[in-house]
Amino acid sequence: MSSSANEQNCYFCRVSGGLADPFVFENRSFVGIFDTNPVNPGHALVIPRRHVVSIFDLNEQEQGDYFDALYGIRQVIETTRFADLYPGMMAREDLRDRPMDHIRRVMSLPFLDAGPDAYTIGNNDGREAGRSIDHLHVIVLPRYNGDVENPRGGIRNVIPDRANYQRR
Ligand SMILES: [Zn+2]
Question: From the CA of 72, how far away is ligand 1's center (Å)?
Fold first, then answer.
């Protein structure tokens, strides 16, 4: 398979090629990184090495390795001290010109190193679903007691007006 112009300009191809964020996990089909704009402590991404746009484009080997990657990144998340990770991230030369607001905000959270209570796992599979980079990246987002006022419905809240299914 030849490398298209699309792939040459693809940020997650740069990542999977070892040219951007350091891997914190890898297997034969996927790499895992910590997101540099975390919305919660330990926010991680699982990215196929191959330029795959949609989760439905994974081949059989990748489908099998996907769950290995989820288990692997969970273990990394649960054994990383975020009070050390994020200052190190802020000191990265390649991020010097990037805003650090998200990192500063998660570092100020009272549950920074409390360990996840739950997870939100998923990907935005298509532009209409919010995907901004057309190379599959599965979000593994640790969740913490009290990180939002009312977590009920979770991922349903991507459509806020119809998220609430609680009977009144
Ligand atoms: Zn790519």
Answer: 22
What is the distance between the alpha carbons of residues 28 and 139, in angstroms, rounded to a whole number? 19
**Structure confidence by residue, pLDDT tens digits, 42-72:** 999 999 999 999 999 999 999 999 999 999 9
Asked whether residue 43 is assigned to any structural domain, the reply reads yes
Q: In angstroms, what is the span from residue 51 Cα to ligand 1's centroid?
A: 4
CA of 134 to the centre of ligand 1 (A): 7
The structural domain count of the chain equals: 1
Looking at residue 136, its amino acid is L
CB atoms within 10 A of CB 103: 21
Tell me what the pLDDT averaged over the chain comes to.
94
The CATH number of the domain where 56 resides is what? 3.30.428.10
Given a cut of 70, the residues of the chain with pLDDT beneath it are: 1-6, 166-168
> Could you tell me the distance, in angstroms and rounded to a whole number, from the CA of residue 40 to the centre of ligand 1?
25
